[in-house]
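The authors assume throughout that readers already know how a fold can be written as C-alpha coordinates. For illustration, here is how one protein appears when written out as sequence plus C-alpha coordinates:
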Amino acid sequence: MSFCNVPQPRLVCAEYFASQLVVEATLVQTRELHDIDDPEGISAFVYTLRVKRVLRGTVAGTIRVHEGNDSGRATFDWVEGREYLLFLFQSAEQKGAWALDGCGNSGPLSKAAMALSEIAEIKKARGSGVIHGVVSEQALSTPVAGVHVEAWGPMGRYAATTNEKGEFQINVPAGRYIVGAVESGFNAADISYEHLRDIQIDPGGCAQVQLVRVESPPAP
Protein backbone atom coordinates (compact mmCIF):
# COMPACT_ATOMS: atom_id res chain seq x y z
CA MET A 1 0.00 0.00 0.00
CA SER A 2 1.02 3.58 -0.61
CA PHE A 3 2.65 5.70 2.09
CA CYS A 4 0.97 9.09 1.74
CA ASN A 5 2.86 12.19 2.76
CA VAL A 6 1.42 15.72 2.89
CA PRO A 7 0.03 17.82 1.24
CA GLN A 8 -3.16 15.82 1.58
CA PRO A 9 -5.76 15.36 0.40
CA ARG A 10 -4.99 15.68 -3.29
CA LEU A 11 -7.57 18.06 -4.77
CA VAL A 12 -9.69 16.51 -7.52
CA CYS A 13 -9.53 19.68 -9.60
CA ALA A 14 -5.73 19.92 -9.36
CA GLU A 15 -5.19 16.24 -10.13
CA TYR A 16 -7.62 16.39 -13.04
CA PHE A 17 -5.71 19.19 -14.77
CA ALA A 18 -2.34 17.61 -13.92
CA SER A 19 -3.38 14.26 -15.47
CA GLN A 20 -2.86 13.35 -19.10
CA LEU A 21 -5.71 10.87 -18.99
CA VAL A 22 -8.77 10.46 -16.73
CA VAL A 23 -10.96 7.42 -17.40
CA GLU A 24 -13.53 5.04 -16.04
CA ALA A 25 -12.28 1.53 -16.77
CA THR A 26 -12.76 -2.12 -15.81
CA LEU A 27 -9.83 -4.27 -14.68
CA VAL A 28 -9.60 -7.35 -16.90
CA GLN A 29 -6.13 -8.73 -16.09
CA THR A 30 -3.36 -8.43 -13.50
CA ARG A 31 0.20 -9.48 -14.36
CA GLU A 32 3.15 -9.74 -11.98
CA LEU A 33 6.64 -8.63 -13.01
CA HIS A 34 9.73 -10.30 -11.50
CA ASP A 35 13.38 -9.25 -11.39
CA ILE A 36 15.94 -11.55 -12.99
CA ASP A 37 17.98 -11.45 -9.78
CA ASP A 38 14.94 -12.25 -7.61
CA PRO A 39 12.54 -14.46 -9.59
CA GLU A 40 10.48 -15.23 -6.48
CA GLY A 41 9.89 -11.58 -5.65
CA ILE A 42 7.41 -9.24 -7.33
CA SER A 43 8.95 -5.99 -8.57
CA ALA A 44 5.84 -4.50 -10.15
CA PHE A 45 2.33 -5.14 -11.43
CA VAL A 46 0.79 -4.40 -14.82
CA TYR A 47 -2.98 -3.95 -14.89
CA THR A 48 -4.88 -4.23 -18.16
CA LEU A 49 -8.17 -2.33 -18.15
CA ARG A 50 -10.99 -1.91 -20.63
CA VAL A 51 -11.92 1.76 -20.99
CA LYS A 52 -15.56 2.53 -20.34
CA ARG A 53 -15.57 6.35 -20.49
CA VAL A 54 -12.92 9.01 -21.13
CA LEU A 55 -13.17 12.14 -18.99
CA ARG A 56 -9.88 13.76 -20.03
CA GLY A 57 -7.47 12.98 -22.86
CA THR A 58 -7.92 10.59 -25.77
CA VAL A 59 -7.82 6.80 -25.65
CA ALA A 60 -9.92 3.85 -26.76
CA GLY A 61 -10.09 0.10 -26.15
CA THR A 62 -7.73 -1.10 -23.42
CA ILE A 63 -4.93 0.52 -21.43
CA ARG A 64 -2.11 -0.81 -19.25
CA VAL A 65 -1.26 0.68 -15.86
CA HIS A 66 2.21 -0.02 -14.42
CA GLU A 67 2.60 0.03 -10.64
CA GLY A 68 5.77 -0.68 -8.71
CA ASN A 69 5.55 -3.02 -5.73
CA ASP A 70 6.68 -0.33 -3.30
CA SER A 71 5.43 2.44 -0.99
CA GLY A 72 4.04 4.35 -3.99
CA ARG A 73 1.34 1.74 -4.61
CA ALA A 74 -2.33 2.70 -4.61
CA THR A 75 -4.22 2.79 -1.33
CA PHE A 76 -6.98 0.62 -2.81
CA ASP A 77 -7.13 -3.04 -3.90
CA TRP A 78 -7.12 -4.04 -7.57
CA VAL A 79 -9.85 -6.62 -8.25
CA GLU A 80 -10.50 -8.10 -11.67
CA GLY A 81 -13.99 -7.23 -12.93
CA ARG A 82 -14.16 -4.09 -10.76
CA GLU A 83 -14.61 -0.63 -12.32
CA TYR A 84 -12.25 2.22 -11.42
CA LEU A 85 -11.91 5.96 -11.83
CA LEU A 86 -8.25 6.58 -12.77
CA PHE A 87 -6.19 9.78 -12.98
CA LEU A 88 -3.21 8.81 -15.16
CA PHE A 89 0.07 10.03 -16.62
CA GLN A 90 2.58 8.26 -18.85
CA SER A 91 4.71 5.73 -16.99
CA ALA A 92 8.43 6.42 -16.76
CA GLU A 93 9.07 2.75 -15.98
CA GLN A 94 7.36 0.98 -18.86
CA LYS A 95 6.94 2.34 -22.38
CA GLY A 96 3.35 2.55 -23.56
CA ALA A 97 1.91 2.10 -20.08
CA TRP A 98 0.30 4.57 -17.69
CA ALA A 99 0.89 5.31 -14.01
CA LEU A 100 -1.06 6.92 -11.19
CA ASP A 101 -0.46 8.78 -7.95
CA GLY A 102 -1.07 6.21 -5.23
CA CYS A 103 -2.17 8.99 -2.88
CA GLY A 104 -4.43 10.70 -5.40
CA ASN A 105 -8.12 10.35 -6.22
CA SER A 106 -7.94 7.16 -8.30
CA GLY A 107 -10.00 4.30 -6.88
CA PRO A 108 -13.06 2.09 -7.24
CA LEU A 109 -15.82 3.72 -9.27
CA SER A 110 -18.32 2.75 -6.57
CA LYS A 111 -16.62 5.23 -4.21
CA ALA A 112 -16.01 7.99 -6.74
CA ALA A 113 -19.36 9.85 -6.67
CA MET A 114 -17.88 13.01 -5.14
CA ALA A 115 -14.90 13.05 -7.52
CA LEU A 116 -17.19 12.55 -10.53
CA SER A 117 -19.42 15.38 -9.34
CA GLU A 118 -16.42 17.70 -9.09
CA ILE A 119 -15.26 16.70 -12.58
CA ALA A 120 -18.71 17.49 -13.96
CA GLU A 121 -18.47 20.97 -12.43
CA ILE A 122 -14.95 21.41 -13.83
CA LYS A 123 -16.19 20.67 -17.34
CA LYS A 124 -18.81 23.42 -17.03
CA ALA A 125 -16.40 25.99 -15.56
CA ARG A 126 -15.13 28.92 -17.61
CA GLY A 127 -12.84 31.90 -17.11
CA SER A 128 -10.69 32.13 -14.00
CA GLY A 129 -9.04 29.46 -11.88
CA VAL A 130 -7.61 28.91 -8.41
CA ILE A 131 -4.16 28.30 -6.93
CA HIS A 132 -4.46 26.32 -3.69
CA GLY A 133 -1.55 25.88 -1.32
CA VAL A 134 -0.20 25.07 2.13
CA VAL A 135 2.73 26.66 3.98
CA SER A 136 4.38 24.67 6.76
CA GLU A 137 7.54 24.16 8.76
CA GLN A 138 10.15 21.73 7.45
CA ALA A 139 8.44 18.98 9.47
CA LEU A 140 5.44 19.48 7.13
CA SER A 141 2.95 18.66 9.89
CA THR A 142 3.20 22.14 11.47
CA PRO A 143 1.33 24.85 9.50
CA VAL A 144 2.49 28.45 9.34
CA ALA A 145 -0.25 31.07 9.56
CA GLY A 146 -0.08 34.70 8.43
CA VAL A 147 2.27 34.18 5.48
CA HIS A 148 1.60 36.46 2.51
CA VAL A 149 1.71 34.52 -0.77
CA GLU A 150 1.60 36.10 -4.22
CA ALA A 151 1.06 34.82 -7.77
CA TRP A 152 2.64 36.79 -10.61
CA GLY A 153 1.16 36.39 -14.09
CA PRO A 154 0.43 38.10 -17.41
CA MET A 155 -2.64 39.85 -16.03
CA GLY A 156 -1.00 41.14 -12.87
CA ARG A 157 -0.22 40.20 -9.30
CA TYR A 158 -2.62 38.38 -6.96
CA ALA A 159 -2.22 37.64 -3.25
CA ALA A 160 -3.59 35.76 -0.24
CA THR A 161 -2.59 35.12 3.38
CA THR A 162 -2.38 31.69 4.99
CA ASN A 163 -4.97 30.82 7.63
CA GLU A 164 -4.43 28.97 10.92
CA LYS A 165 -4.07 25.71 8.96
CA GLY A 166 -1.35 27.24 6.79
CA GLU A 167 -3.67 27.14 3.78
CA PHE A 168 -4.18 29.80 1.13
CA GLN A 169 -6.26 30.19 -2.00
CA ILE A 170 -5.61 32.70 -4.81
CA ASN A 171 -8.21 33.32 -7.51
CA VAL A 172 -6.52 34.19 -10.81
CA PRO A 173 -7.40 34.57 -14.50
CA ALA A 174 -6.33 31.72 -16.78
CA GLY A 175 -2.63 31.92 -17.62
CA ARG A 176 0.86 30.96 -16.44
CA TYR A 177 2.07 32.03 -13.00
CA ILE A 178 5.01 32.21 -10.61
CA VAL A 179 4.06 31.71 -6.95
CA GLY A 180 6.06 32.58 -3.86
CA ALA A 181 5.90 33.91 -0.32
CA VAL A 182 6.37 37.65 0.10
CA GLU A 183 8.38 37.06 3.27
CA SER A 184 11.86 35.62 2.82
CA GLY A 185 12.71 32.19 4.15
CA PHE A 186 10.17 30.03 2.29
CA ASN A 187 10.80 27.67 -0.62
CA ALA A 188 8.89 25.02 -2.53
CA ALA A 189 8.66 21.73 -0.66
CA ASP A 190 10.22 18.68 -2.29
CA ILE A 191 6.74 17.14 -2.45
CA SER A 192 5.00 20.18 -3.96
CA TYR A 193 2.67 18.98 -6.72
CA GLU A 194 3.42 21.95 -8.98
CA HIS A 195 6.60 23.83 -9.87
CA LEU A 196 6.24 27.25 -8.20
CA ARG A 197 7.85 29.06 -11.13
CA ASP A 198 5.73 27.47 -13.82
CA ILE A 199 2.08 27.04 -12.86
CA GLN A 200 -0.45 26.79 -15.69
CA ILE A 201 -4.06 27.66 -14.88
CA ASP A 202 -6.57 26.66 -17.56
CA PRO A 203 -10.06 28.22 -17.71
CA GLY A 204 -11.89 26.84 -14.69
CA GLY A 205 -8.73 25.02 -13.59
CA CYS A 206 -6.70 24.87 -10.42
CA ALA A 207 -3.26 23.96 -9.09
CA GLN A 208 -1.95 22.75 -5.73
CA VAL A 209 1.38 23.73 -4.18
CA GLN A 210 3.31 23.30 -0.93
CA LEU A 211 5.83 25.75 0.58
CA VAL A 212 8.05 25.18 3.60
CA ARG A 213 10.06 27.45 5.86
CA VAL A 214 13.77 27.20 5.10
CA GLU A 215 15.80 26.08 8.10
CA SER A 216 18.12 28.81 9.33
CA PRO A 217 21.80 27.88 9.62
CA PRO A 218 22.99 27.35 13.21
CA ALA A 219 24.48 30.41 14.92
CA PRO A 220 28.31 30.47 14.94
